[in-house]
Amino acid sequence: MYDQSVSSYLQNLNSFVQQQAQQIQELERQLKEFQNEISTLKQQPSTRIDRLEYKFDQLKIERLEGTLNIGLNPTDPNAVQNFEVGQTSPQVGMMQQEQAGQQMQQIRQNVDMYLNEEIPALLEKLETQYESRLDEANKYHIIEDIRKQMDSRIQYYLSHVPKEENTAPAQYAEQIAEHVKRDIVRAVEHFIKHIPGEMKGDDPS
Protein backbone atom coordinates (compact mmCIF):
# COMPACT_ATOMS: atom_id res chain seq x y z
CA MET A 1 0.00 0.00 0.00
CA TYR A 2 2.80 2.30 0.92
CA ASP A 3 4.70 1.49 -2.25
CA GLN A 4 1.64 2.29 -4.37
CA SER A 5 1.21 5.66 -2.68
CA VAL A 6 4.84 6.51 -3.22
CA SER A 7 4.68 5.34 -6.81
CA SER A 8 1.54 7.40 -7.44
CA TYR A 9 3.14 10.47 -5.86
CA LEU A 10 6.26 10.09 -7.97
CA GLN A 11 4.20 9.75 -11.11
CA ASN A 12 2.24 12.88 -10.28
CA LEU A 13 5.44 14.73 -9.47
CA ASN A 14 7.05 13.60 -12.70
CA SER A 15 4.00 14.71 -14.67
CA PHE A 16 4.06 18.09 -12.94
CA VAL A 17 7.76 18.52 -13.63
CA GLN A 18 7.28 17.67 -17.31
CA GLN A 19 4.41 20.15 -17.54
CA GLN A 20 6.53 22.86 -15.95
CA ALA A 21 9.39 22.04 -18.30
CA GLN A 22 7.10 22.42 -21.31
CA GLN A 23 5.84 25.78 -20.04
CA ILE A 24 9.41 26.95 -19.51
CA GLN A 25 10.32 25.88 -23.05
CA GLU A 26 7.33 27.76 -24.42
CA LEU A 27 8.27 30.88 -22.48
CA GLU A 28 11.84 30.61 -23.71
CA ARG A 29 10.59 30.25 -27.28
CA GLN A 30 8.42 33.35 -26.96
CA LEU A 31 11.26 35.28 -25.38
CA LYS A 32 13.55 34.35 -28.25
CA GLU A 33 10.94 35.50 -30.77
CA PHE A 34 10.62 38.84 -29.01
CA GLN A 35 14.39 39.27 -28.99
CA ASN A 36 14.56 38.49 -32.70
CA GLU A 37 11.83 41.03 -33.46
CA ILE A 38 13.59 43.70 -31.42
CA SER A 39 16.87 42.96 -33.19
CA THR A 40 15.16 43.16 -36.59
CA LEU A 41 13.57 46.51 -35.74
CA LYS A 42 16.90 47.92 -34.63
CA GLN A 43 18.51 46.91 -37.93
CA GLN A 44 15.83 48.51 -40.09
CA PRO A 45 16.82 51.94 -41.46
CA SER A 46 14.96 54.81 -39.88
CA THR A 47 14.00 58.12 -41.44
CA ARG A 48 15.00 61.24 -39.58
CA ILE A 49 14.13 64.73 -40.74
CA ASP A 50 16.35 67.28 -39.06
CA ARG A 51 15.11 70.24 -41.07
CA LEU A 52 13.25 71.15 -44.21
CA GLU A 53 14.68 73.61 -46.66
CA TYR A 54 12.76 75.42 -49.31
CA LYS A 55 14.96 77.02 -51.89
CA PHE A 56 13.41 79.81 -53.86
CA ASP A 57 16.44 81.42 -55.41
CA GLN A 58 14.95 83.26 -58.37
CA LEU A 59 12.78 86.21 -59.07
CA LYS A 60 10.64 85.72 -62.13
CA ILE A 61 10.00 88.55 -64.57
CA GLU A 62 7.46 87.33 -67.07
CA ARG A 63 6.29 90.59 -68.62
CA LEU A 64 6.39 94.34 -68.22
CA GLU A 65 2.82 94.55 -66.96
CA GLY A 66 1.45 93.21 -63.70
CA THR A 67 3.45 91.92 -60.76
CA LEU A 68 6.82 90.24 -61.03
CA ASN A 69 6.90 86.76 -59.55
CA ILE A 70 9.32 85.37 -57.03
CA GLY A 71 10.68 81.88 -56.56
CA LEU A 72 9.35 80.29 -59.75
CA ASN A 73 10.96 78.21 -62.43
CA PRO A 74 11.80 80.61 -65.30
CA THR A 75 11.46 77.79 -67.84
CA ASP A 76 7.79 77.27 -67.00
CA PRO A 77 5.89 80.51 -67.75
CA ASN A 78 2.55 78.73 -67.41
CA ALA A 79 3.22 78.17 -63.72
CA VAL A 80 3.61 81.86 -62.90
CA GLN A 81 1.71 82.84 -59.79
CA ASN A 82 2.17 85.67 -57.35
CA PHE A 83 4.40 84.77 -54.44
CA GLU A 84 2.81 85.37 -51.09
CA VAL A 85 4.29 84.71 -47.68
CA GLY A 86 1.90 83.91 -44.86
CA GLN A 87 3.24 83.67 -41.37
CA THR A 88 1.81 82.88 -38.01
CA SER A 89 4.44 83.91 -35.53
CA PRO A 90 4.28 83.34 -31.79
CA GLN A 91 3.76 86.19 -29.40
CA VAL A 92 7.04 87.84 -28.64
CA GLY A 93 8.00 90.60 -26.29
CA MET A 94 7.86 94.22 -27.29
CA MET A 95 11.64 94.41 -27.37
CA GLN A 96 11.91 91.48 -29.76
CA GLN A 97 9.26 93.00 -31.99
CA GLU A 98 11.13 96.27 -32.05
CA GLN A 99 14.39 94.51 -32.89
CA ALA A 100 12.68 92.56 -35.67
CA GLY A 101 11.26 95.80 -37.06
CA GLN A 102 14.67 97.47 -37.00
CA GLN A 103 16.23 94.48 -38.72
CA MET A 104 13.56 94.47 -41.42
CA GLN A 105 14.07 98.19 -41.99
CA GLN A 106 17.83 97.74 -42.26
CA ILE A 107 17.50 95.00 -44.86
CA ARG A 108 14.86 96.96 -46.76
CA GLN A 109 17.09 100.04 -46.95
CA ASN A 110 20.00 97.90 -48.13
CA VAL A 111 18.02 96.32 -50.95
CA ASP A 112 16.27 99.58 -51.82
CA MET A 113 19.63 101.31 -52.24
CA TYR A 114 20.77 98.43 -54.45
CA LEU A 115 17.71 98.84 -56.67
CA ASN A 116 18.34 102.57 -57.02
CA GLU A 117 22.09 102.55 -57.48
CA GLU A 118 23.07 99.22 -59.04
CA ILE A 119 20.17 97.88 -61.09
CA PRO A 120 20.01 100.73 -63.67
CA ALA A 121 23.65 100.05 -64.57
CA LEU A 122 22.99 96.30 -64.63
CA LEU A 123 20.07 96.84 -67.03
CA GLU A 124 22.29 98.77 -69.41
CA LYS A 125 25.00 96.13 -69.23
CA LEU A 126 22.53 93.33 -69.94
CA GLU A 127 20.93 95.27 -72.78
CA THR A 128 24.33 95.41 -74.48
CA GLN A 129 25.12 91.79 -73.69
CA TYR A 130 21.85 90.43 -75.11
CA GLU A 131 21.36 93.11 -77.79
CA SER A 132 18.07 94.27 -76.37
CA ARG A 133 16.80 97.76 -75.67
CA LEU A 134 14.25 98.97 -73.12
CA ASP A 135 12.87 102.46 -72.92
CA GLU A 136 13.11 104.35 -69.64
CA ALA A 137 9.45 103.69 -68.76
CA ASN A 138 9.97 99.94 -69.00
CA LYS A 139 13.15 100.09 -66.93
CA TYR A 140 11.32 102.05 -64.27
CA HIS A 141 8.47 99.54 -64.29
CA ILE A 142 10.87 96.60 -63.80
CA ILE A 143 12.57 98.22 -60.82
CA GLU A 144 9.34 99.33 -59.17
CA ASP A 145 7.67 95.96 -59.68
CA ILE A 146 10.58 94.26 -57.93
CA ARG A 147 10.46 96.86 -55.17
CA LYS A 148 6.81 95.96 -54.47
CA GLN A 149 7.83 92.37 -53.73
CA MET A 150 10.84 93.27 -51.65
CA ASP A 151 9.20 92.88 -48.21
CA SER A 152 7.73 89.47 -49.01
CA ARG A 153 11.07 88.21 -50.27
CA ILE A 154 12.89 89.52 -47.20
CA GLN A 155 10.33 87.83 -44.95
CA TYR A 156 10.84 84.58 -46.84
CA TYR A 157 14.58 84.54 -46.24
CA LEU A 158 14.19 85.63 -42.62
CA SER A 159 11.98 82.57 -42.15
CA HIS A 160 14.19 80.10 -44.01
CA VAL A 161 17.77 81.25 -43.42
CA PRO A 162 18.67 80.56 -39.79
CA LYS A 163 20.82 83.02 -37.89
CA GLU A 164 24.05 81.51 -36.63
CA GLU A 165 24.59 81.82 -32.90
CA ASN A 166 27.68 84.03 -33.14
CA THR A 167 26.46 86.16 -36.05
CA ALA A 168 25.91 89.81 -35.24
CA PRO A 169 22.47 91.26 -36.14
CA ALA A 170 23.99 93.64 -38.69
CA GLN A 171 25.89 90.80 -40.36
CA TYR A 172 22.78 88.63 -40.48
CA ALA A 173 20.81 91.50 -42.05
CA GLU A 174 23.53 91.80 -44.70
CA GLN A 175 23.29 88.07 -45.43
CA ILE A 176 19.54 88.28 -45.97
CA ALA A 177 19.96 91.33 -48.20
CA GLU A 178 22.52 89.47 -50.33
CA HIS A 179 20.07 86.61 -50.90
CA VAL A 180 17.44 89.07 -52.14
CA LYS A 181 19.97 90.89 -54.35
CA ARG A 182 20.96 87.63 -56.03
CA ASP A 183 17.30 86.92 -56.77
CA ILE A 184 16.94 90.36 -58.31
CA VAL A 185 19.98 89.91 -60.57
CA ARG A 186 18.75 86.51 -61.78
CA ALA A 187 15.30 87.88 -62.51
CA VAL A 188 16.53 90.90 -64.43
CA GLU A 189 19.02 88.87 -66.46
CA HIS A 190 16.43 86.23 -67.32
CA PHE A 191 13.99 88.88 -68.45
CA ILE A 192 16.47 90.76 -70.64
CA LYS A 193 17.68 87.49 -72.14
CA HIS A 194 14.17 86.38 -73.09
CA ILE A 195 12.43 89.67 -73.72
CA PRO A 196 9.93 89.46 -76.63
CA GLY A 197 10.71 91.61 -79.63
CA GLU A 198 7.53 93.67 -79.29
CA MET A 199 8.57 94.75 -75.79
CA LYS A 200 11.90 96.17 -76.89
CA GLY A 201 12.33 99.88 -77.12
CA ASP A 202 13.80 99.76 -80.61
CA ASP A 203 12.63 102.15 -83.23
CA PRO A 204 10.53 100.08 -85.69
CA SER A 205 11.49 102.40 -88.54
Automatic annotation (TrEMBL):
Residues 10-44 form a coiled coil. Pfam families: GerPC. It comes from the Bacteria. Keywords: Coiled coil. This is Spore germination protein GerPC. It comes from Bacillus amyloliquefaciens.
